[in-house]
Amino acid sequence: MYSHGCGQFGQLGHGNTDNKSVPTVVEKIQAYRVSQVAVGDHNVFALTSTVLCQFCNMVVDGSVFGWGANQSCQVGAGQSSLYISEPIILRAFNDIRLYKISCGSQHAMAIVDDGGIYAWGKLASNRIQEEPQEVQNFKDNAWDIVSGYDSTFIFCE
Questions:
Q1: CATH assignment of 2-156, among 2.130.10.30, 2.40.420.20, 2.30.22.10, 1.25.40.10
Q2: Tell me: the pLDDT tens digits for 85-99?
Q3: How far apart are CA 102 and CA 153, in angstroms?
Q4: pTM of this prediction?
């Protein structure tokens, strides 16, 4: 995977906040097969692929990497720092397989392989969720998710 552009909050994933004028390899995840990328204002997530998702019948791994701006915990790694300049694995998903991830300006949401939803960052009523947490009482099987600046749309069966 390559990135270039503004790196002010570490969102390019190169371990610094430098801008890049040409596409540059994101070395920390070079050994992984990235199957999906979600890009917020200043944060990024990459989902890698290797196994079959039971619900969606697609190949997914569950390894989720996040980096970039983190002032509202939108990277999903708690309040470790205001920005994370290189990809880190989100440990909250170690035993959970993700199907799709989406992010807005200061929040992120993901669909897991059983159709459930996880959310983190700045959520409704400006509540900060430091790490990914399952959305309780969500009973519909989600199959797609799309986020805007401060909103998310979930498509269900």
A1: 2.130.10.30
A2: 999 999 888 888 888
A3: 10
A4: 0.87
